[in-house]
């Protein structure tokens, strides 16, 4: 379908900026309205799949997550993960960041097994690219351990900091 309307980048950028500010200051409902309006305008005026549309989906998903509207946030994050993977690769840093947000939403929805699978995969990617001692690897591993604990997985391996600020593996029985 050919778009006949022109895209007003100034308008949508202003909405996105205002929405980000509102989200930052804790008004997720107002942020949602800004992001929804921006996304609708972009979908109306830009070609399907345009990268600005994808970024707006992520902004809206974050505002929805902040309000506990996790079902819609999950759907938006799922779509964004697919698009990010196409652009940056499945293991690209940007894709992993959006997958992490999706994993958190899945956990909030009680989809702990799916969230655990996603966390374990992300942890492997992060530790291979950045190393076990990288803060993102540690944070992701904490997510893995938390989810394993919720699911009652036994014999969990963990990573802890020893007194010399190095990582060491431990086994939790």
Rg from C-alpha positions?
A: 19 Å
Q: How would you characterize the largest beta sheet?
A: 2 strands, antiparallel
**Count of DSSP helices?**
7
Strand content: 5-15%
Query: How much helix is in the residues?
Result: 55-70%
How would you state the average pLDDT, rounded?
Answer: 89
**How many β-strand stretches?**
2
**In order across it, which strands form the biggest sheet?**
1-2
Q: Which residue ranges are poorly predicted, with pLDDT under 50 across at least 5 consecutive positions?
A: 161-173
Report the structural category: mainly alpha
Q: Helix-strand pattern, N to C?
A: HHHHHHHEE
Oligomer: single chain
What would you call the shape? globular
Distance between the termini: 59 Å
């Amino acid at each position: 379908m050919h778009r006949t309307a022109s895209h007003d980048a100034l308008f949508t950028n202003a909405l996105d900026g205002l929405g980000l500010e509102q989200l930052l200051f804790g008004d997720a409902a107002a942020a949602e309205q800004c992001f929804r309006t921006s996304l609708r305008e972009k979908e109306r005026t830009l070609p399907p799949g345009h990268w600005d549309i994808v970024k707006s989906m992520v902004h809206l998903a974050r505002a929805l997550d902040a309000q506990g509207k996790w079902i819609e946030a999950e759907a938006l994050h799922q779509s964004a993960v697919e698009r990010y993977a196409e652009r940056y690769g499945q293991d690209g840093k940007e894709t992993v960041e959006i997958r992490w947000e999706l994993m958190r939403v899945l956990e909030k929805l009680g989809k702990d097994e799916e969230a655990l699978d996603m966390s374990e995969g992300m942890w492997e990617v992060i530790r291979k690219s950045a190393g076990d001692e990288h803060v993102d690897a540690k944070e992701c591993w904490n997510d893995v351990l938390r989810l394993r604990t919720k699911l009652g997985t036994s014999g969990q391996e963990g990573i802890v900091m020893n007194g010399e600020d190095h990582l060491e593996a431990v086994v939790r029985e």
